[in-house]
């Protein structure tokens, strides 16, 4: 049993103490900025996770005509852009604010920064992988399936799968940052 859990029931660890030997609660601004950053990051992950869940049948079972009709001509993903784009930018901005606000809390700072960077990487992935595929899709017209269909579909789906994975990792980092706020100055934990 560690020294911090000696006086607690069932050996459950008590509060972590700062370097001055007293527990330092997180500031209101740290809690509020963390709450909103994590909320917007989770909302940003939502549409990306939906793409991930849709990908297996869209890549393996759907015929090319159905994929093209649903994806290109019938606006299935219109609200993903209208709602998703502001959420993606908001996740990065609010993550950066959270990172600045918790900068004096070492574990939270590193994790918040990692989460923010991962959300920025997810946006860069969208710009470099998905946006070029979207530009090609915008040129498609009803009629025969284009010759480059398989390559464009794979690029579009793979880009969204990668984005979902990166955002999931980013949200996990932000959540860990928020949970570690009470650990100010603790140099003995795994997140230091």
Uncertain regions spanning at least 5 consecutive residues: 1-5, 10-17, 186-192
Compressed to H and E, one letter per element, the order equals HHHHH
Number of domains: 1
Fraction of residues in β-strands: under 5%
Description:
This protein is mainly alpha-helical and 192 residues long. It has one domain. 68% of the residues lie in helices and 0% in strands. It is built from 5 helices and no strands. The two termini are 21 Å apart.
Blueprint of the fold:
Elements: H1 28-60, H2 64-73, H3 78-101, H4 106-137, H5 149-179
Helix pairs in contact: 1-3, 1-5, 3-4, 4-5
Descriptive key words:
single chain, 192 residues, mainly alpha, elongated, disordered N terminus
In short:
Helix content is 68%, strand content 0%. It is an all-alpha fold and 192 residues long.
């Amino acid at each position: 049993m560690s020294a911090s859990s000696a006086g607690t029931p069932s050996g459950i660890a008590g509060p972590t103490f700062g370097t001055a030997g007293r527990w330092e609660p997180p500031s209101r601004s740290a809690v509020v900025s963390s709450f909103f950053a994590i909320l917007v990051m989770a909302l940003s992950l939502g549409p990306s996770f939906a793409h991930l869940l849709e990908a297996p049948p869209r890549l393996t079972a759907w015929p090319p005509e159905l994929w093209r009709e649903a994806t290109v001509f019938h606006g299935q993903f219109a609200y993903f852009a209208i709602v998703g784009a502001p959420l993606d930018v908001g996740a990065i901005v609010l993550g950066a604010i959270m990172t600045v606000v918790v900068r004096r809390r070492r574990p939270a700072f590193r994790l918040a920064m990692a989460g923010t960077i991962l959300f920025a990487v997810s946006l860069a992935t969208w710009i470099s992988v998905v946006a070029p595929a979207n530009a090609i899709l915008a040129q498609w017209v009803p009629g025969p399936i284009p010759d480059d269909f398989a390559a464009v579909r794979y690029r579009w789906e793979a880009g969204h799968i990668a984005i979902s994975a990166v955002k999931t990792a980013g949200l996990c980092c932000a959540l860990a940052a928020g949970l570690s706020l009470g650990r100010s100055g603790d140099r003995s934990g795994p997140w230091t």
